[in-house]
# Entry
Amino acid sequence: MNAIIWQGTNHVGVETVPDPTLLLPTDAIVRVTSTAICGSDLHLLDGFIPSMEKGDILGHEFMGEVVEVGADVKRVRVGERVIMPFNLACGVCDPCRRGLFSACDNSNPNHRMAEALYGATSASGLFGYSHLFGGYAGGQAQFVRVPFADVSCFAIESDLRDDSVLFLTDIFPTGFQAAENCGIVPGRDVVAVFGAGPVGQFALRSAQMLGAAEVIVVDRVTERLRLAEAAGARTINYEQTDVLVALREATGGRGPDHVIDAVGLEAHGHGPGALLDTAEQKLRLSFDRITALRWAILSCAKGGTVSMPGVYGGLVDKLPLGAAFSKGLTLKMGQTHTHRYVRPLLERIQQGEIDPSFVITHRAPLSQGPELYKTFRDKHDGCIKVVLDPWT
Amino acid sequence: MTSGKAGQGPVTAPDHASTGATMPGAERAMFGAAGAFLLTAGLRSGSPFQKLLIGGLGAGLTALAVRGRSPLATALKIQQDGDGHVLVSEAVTIGKSADGLYAVWRKLENLPSLMKHLERVEVLDERRSRWTVKAPAGYSGGEVSWEAELTADEPGRRIAWQSLPGAQVENSGEVLFRAAPGDRGTEVAVHLNYRPLGGSVGAVVARIAGQEPSQQLRDDLMRFKREQELGYHPTTEGQSSGRASRGGKA
Ligand SMILES: [Zn+2]
Ligand SMILES: [Zn+2]
# Structure
């Protein structure tokens, strides 16, 4: 089959590799019909998430049709059209039973590596996201092996297009959880979203669905800001204005009641903190550039929530913890418990509350994936979200 | 120190005596970066020995960075009592009943499938058994074995053992089973106490080579948990990748 392969830092390519096979009786094999490139794939591309190996198959947002199931698979049937959350969960451990699927105890066979790097117990395994997170082959391919099939596969009715349901695998639930974590008081709370990439776009629309009085979106890329405005958000281009002053101004000096940091570890931005972050990251002394998080904490209103769906890697310093403390902020963060949101968000799609395909700007055959990784990374050509077809 | 749970007496954690000073930030970050690099390089390496040595060193450096202790202090931090015994403790919560988990451990001949460094355990009679482990790297003879006897056997609660006089590796240990709060199952805690082959130098070398007993014990307990909760071990071995197509390992 054809698959997008990590070939080394800043190199991805399409290669012909063996078809996946069932490795455990709880596995399924899925023929992939649509697959996407996620913003967090870019952290793999540039090598900021360690432990990639040359030859790894990328991709954690994909869907398709079940073509084979293992002997112990009970719920999933061959021929079913399914989507798979990007994180892997066993479904039986204590975190899984509490709905904390991204904290699954059992799905990362390389928990030891992750613990050594982070100095803490590891998160769940992830599709196509480095050996720290299990080293599972990803879904930017024609076929994919799906572990824990009964827990992983969610059947989708056939009258919904791939484009409308594909993002239930990651960016829609990620944006939604980020908004839910804010504990928005409907009709009262103002929410600021830093980063108008795909997750930021879904966070904005989720905040609206949860009743935010107003949403303000901060970014520097015109196309992204336009897309946010189309949804009814006010926008701030941080390259043209002092973002902290603009946010105070827009909220009568209070600051937004809640701030969503949908940027994560590779924030752009300026100021001495940003310069130091960049220097440390270049020297591999630090994995994270945290300008967005710093601004989020500094701008958030007293008693507010800073919600962090953006990915953070290792150690972070120069965090304005004093500001967070003096304002009594709540920080909420972590990988999405995707499994929890698939059904409820699917219902919202079916009821016409939202069509997630609005975010797609580029569509191409899998063979053009490597070029589009670069287009997406460089935000060229108005690129916000790329969907690839493995069979054209 | 908290008081004991469910009448098990005080929770005994080994002393974390440290002799080192805390590393400054930059040094710590350097260790972190070097550690991550070595960890990755080690795990990528084809040779199992390099994997252990480089990967272990990487993991060690990374852990140093994360803990912020100086290398010397950490090397000496291998927890030892006054008689030169190494103390190792680890615990895991498993979503199963204490009685069931106790029953698995009590069949001592099962232990090698739970604890990877054990080659075999032969049950000699009600109380006595013979334990065999692979010898650490650099130790001639290939295997080390000793006889042990049970010193406590409380069904559903505790199993303890002690090596008999004349053992090559003088050791003792216990496994505790405690109900976890709520409906979370059972907390399984293991305490091991042994005199390392080659004294504390041996213990330091073993740690650098990635055979650190506390890490090994944690891996063993995670494996046990997965066996009990899932009935199998998640794996990626044999999966499709761009390595197989070049004739390399998958
Ligand atoms: Zn993603
Ligand atoms: Zn789980």
About this structure: The first helix of chain A runs from residue 41 to 45. Chain A is about 30% helix and 20% strand. Residues 21 and 145 of chain A are 7 Å apart (CA to CA).
